[in-house]
């Protein structure tokens, strides 16, 4: 299966009639493995901030999580494994695997819990597969 199929078939799947507004699978260096057409272009310093937060949980909290120049307030995640961000009625979830970052961005009516489930389920599967 191609990485694009994981984005199209798993990250952009429908949950209770809702979909993520954007999704991507990235390498730890920020290289794009696959993404939805609406996924924002991430800046190198945004990837650095994300990776630093996985290595030093809480380091993004004072400045916020930035994805494509959009700022998200960092909310409860899982230290070293998941970063969650909130912006108004939407937000983002980032799951770190051995080799990749799974990123999901959502807006209402999707909920944070639905986004977390989609992103983390694929992330857990990829970890189990060695990725």
UniProtKB/TrEMBL annotation:
<dbReference type="Pfam" id="PF00235">
    <property type="entry name" value="Profilin"/>
</dbReference>
<dbReference type="InterPro" id="IPR005455">
    <property type="entry name" value="PFN_euk"/>
</dbReference>
<comment type="function">
    <text>Binds to actin and affects the structure of the cytoskeleton. At high concentrations, profilin prevents the polymerization of actin, whereas it enhances it at low concentrations.</text>
</comment>
<dbReference type="InterPro" id="IPR048278">
    <property type="entry name" value="PFN"/>
</dbReference>
<comment type="subunit">
    <text>Occurs in many kinds of cells as a complex with monomeric actin in a 1:1 ratio.</text>
</comment>
<dbReference type="InterPro" id="IPR036140">
    <property type="entry name" value="PFN_sf"/>
</dbReference>
<dbReference type="GO" id="GO:0005856">
    <property type="term" value="C:cytoskeleton"/>
</dbReference>
<dbReference type="InterPro" id="IPR027310">
    <property type="entry name" value="Profilin_CS"/>
</dbReference>
<keyword id="KW-0009">Actin-binding</keyword>
<comment type="similarity">
    <text>Belongs to the profilin family.</text>
</comment>
<protein>
    <recommendedName>
        <fullName>Profilin</fullName>
    </recommendedName>
</protein>
<dbReference type="GO" id="GO:0003785">
    <property type="term" value="F:actin monomer binding"/>
</dbReference>
<dbReference type="GO" id="GO:0005938">
    <property type="term" value="C:cell cortex"/>
</dbReference>
<keyword id="KW-0206">Cytoskeleton</keyword>
<keyword id="KW-0963">Cytoplasm</keyword>
